[in-house]
Design goal:
- This protein has about 500 residues and is an alpha/beta fold.
- Helices cover about 40% and strands about 15% of the residues.
- The strands form three sheets. The chain has a six-stranded mixed β-sheet, with helices on both faces. Strands 8-11-12-7-13 form a five-stranded parallel β-sheet. Strands 9-10 form a two-stranded antiparallel sheet.
Length: about 500
């Protein structure tokens, strides 16, 4: 009896229905591989560990985990084939590679089988008892391709089907197929009706030119939701909200990395009630009165002639919107407010901020210079929420007249927030203690050597995954460059802080 064409066969001529190996493949939503997969249904992935890429075979099922921003298994795919000659073995030419040649990075071609409409999130994955020893869980998915044994794959499949019962048949079809021989991936493409791209996964690209102001803000409808988002004390959030609504102007001040901008965005969404009523602007040394309030600017008419007109800046435009909708709050978020020459940027607005409404109306200088008699005032429902990096001394401190018109909330580096954040992502108590100890030692040294304003905020240490490798990367890419600016010229300080990171990394490796 001849062997069936295109199938592996045993001595009896029957197809070899060996169980295929399952894989966990990690990617990110904005990476080109994921974009290709969701758009065309097929993509080539590269990464580590190398052994996993070399062990994967055509026909193997793949669970596609999107780390950021989803942190969930969003789709299931099938290995198609490995591109020819990718192992550095001379498969493409039949000749061995030169001895000095660097082996190419292994790659894997994957085709989308079906989507997971209700994605399986990381919290559900890492809390399942059957998955405690799974390599992607132990490694916090720090890598690209991880093998899954039968029990781990079955546990993940059961969880996905539990959330998406309609996928039971799709999984059965993927699992029941016979693994094709090397180079026969095209047969799978032609015979498996499941392998088609699904429009649900196709992320519609946003158009920054037409997106509504504030459309990227977090959805927050209550202080409870804001607390869950920021992990800050409820009483603190309540105080900031009340101060903002009562006084109209609040500045969140603190060292870098204390979550000021993140909190400002969430608080603005809560107080405004609708992202369309929020505007965000970042100040910088070149910010001018003309940008913020109003200025004389050139315009080109239909005949190509240049004329000049007084055009409103972002603050005046938002005030006009708020004035037409007095039943709702409008919020202007000013990020890095102390980066601009504030007295020149705000101008006569200082008076209008202190005395809201028509009784505080002023005549704007640019309009007055063009002969306009129109008065401007800041409506009661227009609120300003600003952030200020207290370690940034490149410009003068906030003008005293402006400081008197704002309420200031100090944002401190917070070990409790850091610990809650790390615990929420399933990190062990030992790893958290190691990082918290590093966080404490570094800030104590910085406070003694410089001052409290030069400490590091907790967001620097919010690492996912939390591993010795990500600690090293944090030091190399973020902390060391910042400290190099703090200590000019350095006299051994960088080596001292580097030693603290090294010690933490060794401790974490020993705990694993």
């Amino acid at each position: 009896m001849s062997k069936p064409k295109g199938k592996a066969a045993d001595s009896d001529g029957k197809p070899d229905k060996r169980r295929r190996r399952a894989w966990w493949l990690a990617t990110r939503r904005r990476r080109s591989e994921w974009q290709s997969l969701v758009a065309a249904g097929i993509a080539t992935f590269a990464g580590r560990p190398r052994a996993s890429f070399e062990a994967a075979q055509p026909g193997d099922p793949v669970l596609l985990y999107v780390s950021k921003p989803d942190h969930a298994i969003r789709a299931v795919g099938i290995v198609i084939q490995r591109p020819q000659g990718d192992r550095g073995t001379g498969e493409a030419t039949g000749q061995p590679p030169p001895a000095e040649a660097t082996p190419p990075i292994p790659t894997l071609e994957v085709q989308l089988a079906f989507e997971v409409p209700d994605p399986l999130g990381w919290q559900s994955i890492q809390s399942a008892p059957a998955l405690q020893g799974a390599e992607p869980v132990r490694q916090r998915s720090s890598g690209t391709l991880f093998p899954l044994n039968d029990a781990e794959y079955d546990a993940l499949r059961r969880q996905i089907i539990g959330r998406n019962p309609e996928l039971a048949g799709a999984f059965a079809s993927v699992d029941s197929g016979i693994a094709p021989l090397e180079g026969e991936g095209e047969a799978v493409l032609q015979s498996n009706d499941l392998i088609t791209p699904h429009t649900h996964l196709r992320e519609k690209p946003s158009d920054y030119r037409t997106a509504a102001p504030g459309s990227q803000l977090p959805a927050v409808s209550s202080l409870d939701e804001l607390q869950s988002l920021t992990m800050l004390p409820f009483e603190m959030l309540e105080e900031i909200r009340d101060l903002l609504e009562e006084t109209g102007q609040v500045v969140l001040s603190g060292p870098p990395g204390t979550g000021k901008t993140w909190l400002a965005r969430g608080m603005a969404a809560l107080v405004a009630g609708d992202p369309a009523r929020v505007q965000i602007v970042q100040f910088h040394p070149a910010t001018t009165y003309e940008d913020f309030i109003e200025g004389l600017k050139p315009q080109l008419d239909p005949r190509g002639q240049v004329s000049y007109a007084v055009l409103p800046g972002i603050f005046v435009r938002l005030c006009e919107q708020a004035r037409l909708d007095p039943e709702h709050n409008y919020v202007l978020v000013i990020d890095e407010i102390n980066r601009a020459p504030l007295a020149r940027v705000f101008g006569e607005l200082l008076y209008a901020l202190e005395y809201r409404g028509p009784e505080g109306a002023v005549q704007l200088s640019a309009s007055a210079g063009m002969g306009s008699q129109r008065l401007f005032y800041v409506p009661e429902n227009l609120l300003l929420l600003a952030t200020m990096n207290s370690a940034d001394r490149t410009l003068a401190l906030v003008d005293y007249a402006l400081r008197r018109r704002f309420r200031f909330i100090e944002m401190e580096p917070d070990a409790v927030v850091l610990d809650r954040w790390l615990a929420r992502r399933g990190n062990s108590l030992a790893s958290r203690r190691t990082v918290l100890n590093l966080f404490k030692k570094i800030n104590e040294r910085l406070a003694d050597a410089l001052d409290d304003d030069h400490r590091l905020g907790h967001s620097y240490f919010m690492l996912d995954p939390l591993t010795p490798g990500t600690l090293t990367r944090l030091w190399r890419s973020a902390v060391r460059p910042l400290l190099a600016e703090y200590f000019v010229p350095p006299t051994g300080e960088l080596d001292e802080y580097n030693a603290l990171f090294d010690e933490a990394g060794r401790t974490m490796s020993a705990e694993d």
